[in-house]
Design a protein that fits this description.
heterodimer, A: alpha/beta, Beta Polymerase, domain 2, two-stranded parallel sheet, 3 helices, 7 strands, globular, B: alpha+beta, three-stranded antiparallel beta sheet, 46% helix, NAD (chain A)
């Protein structure tokens, strides 16, 4: 399943080319890279266009509410080279918390980003149409945050 | 068009319209007979399954999968169970017989799901007889599920490390009977619908989808293979024991409505091939590995996907070492596939938009989760 790419070389390349402040992220079972949010748009553009990597599919975009920060996770896949990459962006819990949108790189990100905004309350800068997608327009709160209390079951 | 003064009109398509396959609502801006703008409204069936998962144990979450894509419950469960097995590192402990049973169930479910697609697409073009034909064989498949799992539509049959129960003695003869009649049934389906002149005229060249656009929108599964993306997880990244079976992956080039239909019909024939081989090679043995009573995966995260009947169904699970998932994200194919309809519908007649929507094979339980 997993064709691993050389993450060390990739991180060095990204830091040299656009000062992405990327680093290899090791404390999980998958292996991923971490990118600073300021350079996210350019980094993703480079990952899609560079013939060596050519990540033309955004498989999944999800977000996790950790106690210390929010993490937005991008799962990329390349049809041409058949390899995978996981990219993470960590955001401090400020108000409002934002990341740059990647919907100009992959159109698939549009609905994913609307869902993350709807359920997790993370804003995406430069998104063409950031509205709630699953919940009603007048819903208060963001259900997937850990401080959103459920009904007792 | 220009010498007759027309007035723009907003048309609400759904959420209770029978041809929306559920509770999808599209707001069309109509210019006479043509659609100039379409806005998707989804979420009428949102039950908050991802939030519910955080208060359930890993085992308790298995039945919820049948409620996602409610015409292919077995495949949803397989995706979830394989992801948790990968997270625990016990993927290689699943017994041989259980793997074969999983393949049999998955392919039967794929056929059943494509038959629902065939029937409903025919019904959207006012063809009632093909609808009865498709549901006839689907009922036989659901009878098979009832023999194995005890329920027809939401089986709750997969378990971590295998399947819930062994097949009883009447299952294999019934499967043999189904495999014997399937080629004849395929001829009937094609004879009554595919060769029909009206059907050809309504689908050929309608709503084509280019390869680049399909990749950029993240379209997967049969809809993508109709646009020339030659990628199937069962062949290119075999999970389980799919590398032991010989089958072809149907691919077509233009990506119009007829191609999306034909790819799915060809996939039924390929699934029958896989079932024939699995029927011949099914070994004896246990169907459940020895896994702990309480599932506690090590802390970490995993993303894993399988070839679902609609596309690539992925699960992203974050575990913190407790018996409950810290975060569970379901990346469903229909949620991504329905997004392209906003662009696809522009410039079509209303009647063609209905057929193009049917050809995407949308199930709302999976979109809204």
């Amino acid at each position: 399943m997993d064709k691993k790419i050389d993450r060390q070389a990739l991180v060095a390349f990204l830091n040299e080319k656009m000062d992405a402040q990327a680093e290899v992220f090791e404390d999980n079972t998958e292996g991923s890279i971490k990118v600073s949010r300021l350079k996210l748009g350019e980094t993703m553009q480079e990952l899609r266009e560079n013939p060596q990597y050519k990540f033309d599919v955004l498989m999944n975009l999800s977000s996790v509410d950790y106690p210390e920060n929010f993490t937005v996770i991008y799962h990329l896949f390349s049809i041409a080279h058949k390899h995978y990459l996981t990219v993470k962006v960590e955001i401090t819990k400020e108000n409002p918390c934002w990341v740059p949108s990647v919907s100009s790189v992959w159109k698939a990100a549009q609905v994913h980003e609307r869902e993350v905004f709807d359920l997790m309350g993370i804003l995406f800068n430069d998104h063409p149409d950031l509205r709630r997608i699953l919940l009603p327009e007048d819903f208060a709160g963001h259900p997937l945050r850990k401080d959103f209390t459920q009904q007792a079951d | 068009m220009n010498d007759i003064r027309t007035q723009e009109m907003n048309l609400n398509f759904g959420p209770q319209h029978p041809s929306t396959h559920g509770v999808y609502r599209g707001v069309f801006t109509m210019e006479g007979e043509y659609i100039t703008k379409c806005v998707n409204h989804i979420g009428y069936l949102h039950r908050g399954i991802e939030k519910l998962a955080e208060s359930r144990t890993y085992t308790q979450f298995i039945p919820y999968n049948g409620r996602l894509d409610y015409v292919s419950g077995m495949l949803n469960e397989e995706a979830y169970v394989r992801t948790v097995e990968k997270l625990m590192g016990i993927s290689d402990q699943v017994p041989e017989r259980a793997e074969y049973i999983r393949v049999i169930m998955a392919e039967l479910q794929r056929i059943a799901s494509h038959l629902v697609f065939y029937s409903s697409m025919a019904l959207d073009m006012a063809g009632f007889t093909p609808w009865t034909y498709g549901f006839r064989e689907r009922d036989t498949i659901l009878d098979l599920f009832e023999m194995a799992a005890g329920s027809r539509m939401m089986p709750n049959y997969m378990r971590f490390g295998g399947v819930a129960a062994d097949l009883n003695e009447e299952f294999m003869p019934a499967l043999r009977k189904l495999l014997d009649i399937m080629p004849k049934c395929m001829e009937e389906y094609h004879g009554i619908l595919t060769g029909n002149e009206i059907f050809q005229a309504r689908t050929k060249g309608v709503a084509p989808l280019s390869r680049e656009k399909a990749l950029n929108y993240g379209i997967s599964g049969p809809s993508a293979r109709a646009s020339g993306i030659d990628y199937d997880l069962r062949r290119d990244e075999p999970y389980g024991i799919y590398d032991r079976f010989k089958f072809n992956v149907p691919v077509r080039q233009t990506g119009d409505t007829l191609d999306r239909y034909m790819v799915r019909m060809d996939e039924i024939a390929e699934s029958v091939k896989i079932l024939e081989q699995a029927y011949r090679e099914l070994p004896e043995g246990p169907v459940l590995a020895k896994v702990p009573k309480i599932i506690k995966p090590p802390a970490g995260e995993v993303y894993n996907r399988i070839e679902h009947s609609k596309g690539h169904l992925g699960f992203h699970i974050v575990s913190d070492g407790t018996p409950k998932p810290y975060r569970l994200r379901i990346c469903s194919p229909c949620f991504v596939n329905v997004a392209i309809f906003e662009e696809m519908a522009v410039g079509l007649h209303l009647q063609d938009a209905v057929v193009a929507f049917a050809s995407l094979d949308i199930v709302l339980g999976e979109i809204d989760r």
